[in-house]
Amino acid sequence: MAGTIGLTSAWTWRSLETPVPLVDLDRLEDNIARMAHHVEARGLALRPHVKTHKTPWIAEAQLAAGAQGLTCATVFEAEVMASVTNEILLAHPPVHAEKLRRLFALPDHLSLIIGVDSPDAVGMLQKAAEQWPRPVKVVAEADVGLKRVGLRNPTDVLQLAQAIGRAPSLEFAGIMFYPGHLKGATSDQSEGMLRLNQDLHQMCETLRRAGFPPAVISGGSTPTAPRFGELADLTEVRPGTYVYNDRTTVSTGACDLRQCALTVSATVVSTSVQGQAVVDAGSKALGREPHEGLAGYGEVLDHPEVVVTRMSEEHGILDLSSVTWRPRVGDLVRIIPNHVCIVVHLNDVIYGMRGEVVERGWEVAARGRGYCP
Amino acid sequence: MAGTIGLTSAWTWRSLETPVPLVDLDRLEDNIARMAHHVEARGLALRPHVKTHKTPWIAEAQLAAGAQGLTCATVFEAEVMASVTNEILLAHPPVHAEKLRRLFALPDHLSLIIGVDSPDAVGMLQKAAEQWPRPVKVVAEADVGLKRVGLRNPTDVLQLAQAIGRAPSLEFAGIMFYPGHLKGATSDQSEGMLRLNQDLHQMCETLRRAGFPPAVISGGSTPTAPRFGELADLTEVRPGTYVYNDRTTVSTGACDLRQCALTVSATVVSTSVQGQAVVDAGSKALGREPHEGLAGYGEVLDHPEVVVTRMSEEHGILDLSSVTWRPRVGDLVRIIPNHVCIVVHLNDVIYGMRGEVVERGWEVAARGRGYCP
Fold this sequence. Notes:
The structure is a homodimer.
Chain A: E1 20-24, H1 25-41, E2 45-46, H2 56-64, E3 70-72, H3 75-81, E4 87-90, H4 97-103, E5 111-116, H5 119-129, E6 136-142, H6 154-166, E7 170-177, H7 190-209, E8 216-219, E9 236-237, H8 247-252, E10 262-270, E11 276-279, H9 283-286, E12 298-300, E13 303-311, E14 316-319, E15 332-337, H10 340-346, E16 349-354, E17 357-363
C-alpha cells in the first residue's frame, strides 16, 4: 500500500487496514477556520496547542489561518514544530538536565516562551539558557482551580516574577494558566468563569503595582472557547483539541457531533457472544479514557446509542443489547473516541479523506519523545 | 545522546531524559528463565505473547530459554518477529482484506497458526491462504468465561472445526482460549479453574468423538501461570506479561513486587499545590489503566504508599497527603505501572540497566501497526 495514497483516487477509507484513525479533511479545515475567526473577533492572539495533532502540516494550516505561534508540551514537539513556526510556548516546566539541553539545542531562530511555577525551575532554566542568543521569555504558571501545577496566590506569582526578573538570561513575560476544571460552554459554569476573571485580574493588578506588568496572559482550552470573551485580562489562548474534537468536547457543549473530525475505523472480528460485536480497535488504538457522564470509551458513527463498553488491548466490545442493529463479521465501523489526543498519541499514521476518498496519509511526526537508543 | 549508550559505562538511569521506561535486565532475565522452567516442569509448550515487549531481542531470549514459538496479536508484530522465529500463533481473528494480504505476505518459512471463532472468518482465511506454500493451521477460539470472543458451546466448536476441515488450504489444529476472567494465582479462583478444566475437557471430548482430535490446546496467561498444572488437556501456554510484570500481576499473586522489571522514570516538575508532587509522566507515558483493588495508576518505587492519583496527558499527580516524604522539584522517581503492556505501546524507546548503569537502549520495534502513509 505504501506510496499509493495520493497517486490514485481509488482508495476509499474502506480499503485501509484497521484499526486506523481517519480525519475528515473538510471538518478539520472548518474547525481550524472557525476557531481562528472566533479568537480574532475577540481581539485575542491564538497559540494552538499541537499536542492534539502532533503534525507539522496541520500546525502550518493553523498558522496560515492566523495563529501567531504554537504551544508544545514536550521538547520533541518543539523540535518537530521548529520547522513551521518562529515562536513556541512550552507549556510544561522543563526540569531535567537532558531536557533542558535539548530545549536550548533548538534552532535559535525560535522565540521561546517557557512556563514555570517554582524558583527551582527558574534557577535550572537560567543556567541552561545562558548560551541562548537572546533573553528567554518566561511566564509564571498560575493555578486557577485545577490544582495540578501553578501558583494560586498573587503574592507567590509576584515573587516568581521577581525571581525571573533577577535571572540575567530570562525575561518575565506574564502569566499562563490552564482552566482544565472548567467546561466553560455550559451555563452552570458562569460562576466559575466569573471567579476566574476576578482571580486573573487580582494577579495582574498585584504584578502591575509591583512593576511587573504582565504583557502576556495566556490561557484557555477548547471547552472554554465559547466563553473566552468573559476574561477581561486575557491576551492569548491555547486551545488544542478543537482541530479534531471528540466526544468529551461535544459533552462540554463546545462543539457538536458533526464537528468531530477524527474517527477510528475498525473491523468487526467476532459476534460469537450474544448481544455484542467485537472490533479490532482496543485500548491500544482507542485509549482507555472514561469521561464522567459519557457511557463507554467511544461511540459508533451513525449508531450513537452503541458504545465501546469494554476493551482489551486489541479488542473493543460494542454493546448491542439495547439496539436491533447487528453488524456482521467483516463489517467496518467508525468510532468517535472519548479523547482524541490520546488516539493520536497511540497511532503512528493517520489518513485524511474527503467524503469516502482518501486524499493523504501522514505520520504523526511529533508522537513519542524523539529519544535515540 | 544518540549512539553513546553501550559505548560508555558512564550513563546511569538518572542521566536519561524523562519520562522514560527502564528495564532492570537482571529481573527480566530471571522472569524469562523462571517461566520457562515452570512451564517445562509441567510438560507444556511455551509460546509467549510478544504484545508485552514488542521487541525481537527479548523474543530471542524467550526462544533461547525454551519457547517453541511466539504469539502475536497484530500482523505487524508477526512481521517484526518473523526474523527470530519459525512459528507464530496469531491470537486475533484476521478479518480485513488488507490485513489478510499482509499476513500471507509474511516470509513463507513461517509456520502459521491462526485463531478464529466464526465460519465467516474461516471463509476469508481460506481465500487469502490459497497461495501459501503449505496448509495453514487453524485453532478454534473458545470462550471459557471472559465473554470477549470465542465459542462457548462444544457443538459450536465442533461445527467450526468441521468448517476448517472442509477448507482446502486450512488444517484444523485444535483449540485456543484466553482465561482473562481468572486471576488464577489466588485461592478463591479454585472453582473457576475447576470449571475451566471441565469445560475444556468437554470440548476436547466432543471433538475427539467426531474425529477432530485437537492436537493443540493453547491457553493461559501470566495470572493463571501458577495453576497451569490444574488443566489436564492443556498442551501449550501463551503468557506475555511475565517478562516485565506490573502492579496488576502482583495483585493477582502471580509475582511479587521485586519481580517487576519495568519502571517509568519521571522527574518532579512541580510541588506548588500542597500535599502533592507533579511528575512529567502522565497518561501519554504511563497509560490510564485503573485496576480493581489498586489505588491510582502506578506506585512509586521505594514509596509504595505513594500512587499516581490523577493524570493529564503529560502530568502525573502523586498524592503525598498520607506520607511525610516530600520530593523536591528536580528529583527523580520511578513508577511501577498498573499495566506494563500499555506503557510499552506508548513509548518508542526503552533502556535496560544493571543496577544503576544503563547497558542498552532499544526501539520498541513492533509498536504501532507498520502502516506506510
